[in-house]
Amino acid sequence: MRIVILLAVVVATIAAVAFAFNAPDDVTIAFNGAEYGMSRYTAAILLFVLSAVVAVGWYIIAIFMRIPFALNRTAKRARFGKARTALADGLIAAEGGDPTNALKKAKKSTNLAKSDASDRKLSFLLAARAAEANGDWSEAEHAYSDLSREKGAELVGLRGLTAAAIQRGDLRGAETHTRKALALKSNASWPFSTLFELQTKAADWESSNETLLIGEKRKSIDVEVARRRRAVLLTAQASRIRQEAPEKAERLAADAARMAPSFPPAAYIAGRLQLAAGKSSKAQATIEGAWRIRPHPALALLWRDLKPNEASNARAKRLKTLANINPTHRESRILLVEAAMTQGHWDDAIETLSHILREGETTRLCTLMEAISGGRGESEEAARWSRTASSAAREADWSDIDPDGRAFVFSNEDWTRLVYTFGDEGNLIHPRYETYGGELETIAHIALPAPAKENFSSEVEQIVETEIDESAREATLGSDEEIDTTKPN
């Protein structure tokens, strides 16, 4: 308004000066039938004064016109102040563990801040949090829904809606909200991680893989973690379709084995499918690649199945070939024990196994020692190792093989766990070990030669010799007694 008055005064001054210089010496003004005469300088001054009066009058009128707006603005400021006070009190109540008071303040703040976007967002958020604390998920969902429609608050609103949907068991609805959040341009990682978790829990391996790809593109997940997770997802998918679509399953499992050679289930399933399809060379390469990184007894069983009817010497040679790929690993050393047992080289077997036993006795190792002792004809020693095996610890890796010789027969829940345990940390899980499930007999897959008879024969000969000595001694004692009875008194 000050600018308007200043402009009016300037314009009036300019007009007066211009009139004073251009008007005639005497100015006559006719008004209401009368004429008034004055000099041009007097007329200029009169014009200036009249303009100033008009400007001041307009200023006064404008003040009166602004009074309603000023009152309205003052009322708004007071309302916003109360809203923010209620909001602050609600946040303090929520943090103090008083959800009832927090919800009350949130409702008050929401009602007072309807026309202010920033305060309205905070009010919706407070209302949602307070409702959550009260266990009123329906009210919380309503508040989050309002919040998701506020510009700039869509992400937090959708996150709350996702949590509320999960709370009431609506996983499909939660997935819908999470997909909307993932479609927003944001650096937040929770839409990816939440959607991925929902899909893996639902055993939707294909959709999980697609979401994993989005997470990689957005750099929401480490590259190595993503690679291991994808290997588990592909293996789980291959395991599911191996009966109805073996070719696709083989391709998926082979990709997973190349992607993560330290994941034995992928190599095992790929090798098993390749062997069933008559691709023994590919199966052999798959096993060798996995054994080089992470040996597993299931892979050794599959290695035997490559040539099921081979002679014992040939079998022992192939076992040694596999062991030499990773010679220092425990499973490779056990393979050498089994190779020696296959050939009946009991002394070599017991020497190698004795070194492994120093690392800790297990049911599997004790059973092997029992078989070796039996092979050597040492029945008492075999019985002792049998008793030791009954109380020894189980082996986690061996428990992955069921009594029928099938390996890695996992449920959907097991595969979901593997996505995180192997994907994030590189560790395997062993469900049968955890639940004390049955496992394959230790020597069921080993073709043992006939037990040695040397010790048994020597024992028999020793018993026979002992009996002969006793018979001779008894005969000698009998003859002595007869001599004594013939003596005269």
Layout of helices and strands, plus pairs?
Elements: H1 2-22, E1 26-31, E2 34-39, H2 40-95, H3 99-112, H4 117-133, H5 137-148, H6 154-167, H7 171-183, H8 190-201, H9 205-217, H10 223-241, H11 246-259, H12 264-276, H13 280-293, H14 297-305, H15 312-323, H16 330-343, H17 346-357, H18 363-375, H19 379-391, H20 412-425, H21 431-434, H22 454-485
Antiparallel strand pairs: 1-2
Total DSSP helices = 22
- Content-based structural category: mainly alpha
Oligomer: single chain
Residue share in β-strands? under 5%
The whole-number mean of residue pLDDT values reads 82
**Within the largest sheet, what's the order of strands?**
1-2
Rg, Cα atoms, Å:
47 Å
Contiguous low-pLDDT stretches (5 residues minimum) are 454-468, 475-489
Tell how many strands the DSSP assignment holds.
Answer: 2
Order of helices and strands: HEEHHHHHHHHHHHHHHHHHHHHH
- Estimated helix fraction: over 70%
Q: Tell the overall outline.
A: rod-shaped
What does this structure look like?
The protein has 489 residues and is mainly alpha-helical. The protein has a domain at 2-87. The protein contains 22 helices and two strands. It has a two-stranded antiparallel sheet with strand order 1-2. The longest helix has 56 residues, at 40-95. The N and C termini lie far apart (166 Å). Mean pLDDT is 82; it is low at 454-468 and 475-489.
Task: Write a compact overview of the structure shown.
The chain has 489 residues and is mostly helical. It has a domain of 86 residues.
